[in-house]
Amino acid sequence: MKEFTRPKIRNLKTGNQVTNEEKFQNEVIRPIAKLKYNLFECYFKKYLNEKNINLSELIKEQQEAKILTIFKKDNTLKADLRGLIIGVFTLKEYEYYISNSKNLNKRINFIIEKRITSTFI
Asked: What is the pTM of this model?
């Protein structure tokens, strides 16, 4: 499969060239996550309701710990939320994703987890 190619960009922190996975994350995944933000929020609210989890009863630190525990343990939730992003990929983006799915899944999960945490805390 053809490598996902974009113009060479320098990493602002290190000055090194940004990897293809970082470019894909910043140019494809993050914009999609921003676009689907409301859907993530709605999906997670539904999840909390189904599991009878009331975050408002917890203090901020407990809320964050609970969300992190949920994301650590519930693989179905992570797969569903990842699917909301993957479903928006173009064919070329999907082909790149398939060839790098293990690392990209970690990046997608992290982005979603941070968006959910910032919303509910």
From this structure: 0.83
